[in-house]
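[Meeting: bench + compute handoff]

Bench side (C.D.) handed over the final construct sequence. Compute side (W.E.) agreed to return the predicted structure before the next meeting so the bench team could plan truncations. Sequence as handed over:
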Amino acid sequence: MATETIDKTHTDHHAENESWEGAAYPFRVGYGKLMIWYFLLSDAFTFAGFLIAYGTLRFSMPSWPVPDFVFSTFPFLTGQHPLLFVTLMTFVLLFSSFTMIRGVQEGQRENRRGVVIWMFLTILGGAAFLGCQAWEWSTLIGKEHMTVTRNPFGTHTTAGIYLDAEGNESDETFEAGASYLIHRIDLNAAHDDGHGDTGHGDSHGSTANLASMVSTGQEHADAAHADAAQDNAADTTMQSADGGDAHAGESHSAEAHADEAHTEDTHATDEHAAADHGDGGHHAHHYPGPGDYPDAVVDEKGFIHRKFIVSTGEEAGAIKTEQFGPKAFGALFFFITGFHGFHVFSGVIFLTIIMINVMSGLYVARRNKNEMVEKIGLYWHFVDLVWVFVFLVFYLL
């Protein structure tokens, strides 16, 4: 009995020594694959920290840009298409996960041609996603002027009525929670049109030049009103002197009504200006440069902050201007999507290198069923999974 116990103990100790001598892989997973899992786990914590920070700021702010409004453009299409383009991006990236799965399956079968085909399709999917992201970034930065420190997308916290070009209440109203985009005028074009004589081009941020331009614009407006008053007085005198000139007075009145109708049409068109992304926007053509106008304030960088009258709440009747949205939105968007885009770009590079190695037959000699293809597959699926959470947090919440 004692002999059997000693033999059993010796056998167990011998088996334990074999496992420590490297006779078997821990958890039956190769060293390289285990390290990939460690890397993905640490990277998951990094992305989780970024997304938690975004969610914390998102719900601690009194207002935040509405994703349906911000991400509503689509290449070669006019009008608003909320989240259509980012949905296409998501489909392309998730479909590349399917092609990656097929590549891993063909690798386990040691079908070199199948691995190359499916990996090439995965590379195309990753490159297409990066191209879509580049277009999205170029639109937000170049056309809508969003940066890491400036967010032109805002949301009204109160209901109100926009002012018209005369500083009076217009027919354009909005409710609390309505979105807007602060448009920008082309300061260079305004300078070329002859509005730069005040020295705006010499000192872009000069307060004296800004006041001079506002004063000049007001003098032009007063002169125009004086000319109009003289014309009306002349018409009245002619009508009193000769009754036959009544027809001319009617013609002048018809032209005035036509001008008013044109102005109303312009206002009706501009009711949707806040929803049109890019340069221009609300009456951008009638702002000669930075200044305080009856219906808006144009800052020194050319951004048009429209004026409105608060219609509800404790501040009812107060005149306010549209303000930039939270800076954190632009900073977090570019940082998190850029960080993810860097992972996609790195994955495309690694996929290309491994595909070339497969074509050369490098992994056939290792006789491990193309384990390197499986490793890069784990990384690619992780990148796709992270995008699902980015899509949920940024574009759906």
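W.E. noted at the follow-up: The chain has two domains: 30-150+328-396, 153-193+265-324. C.D. will use this when planning the next construct.
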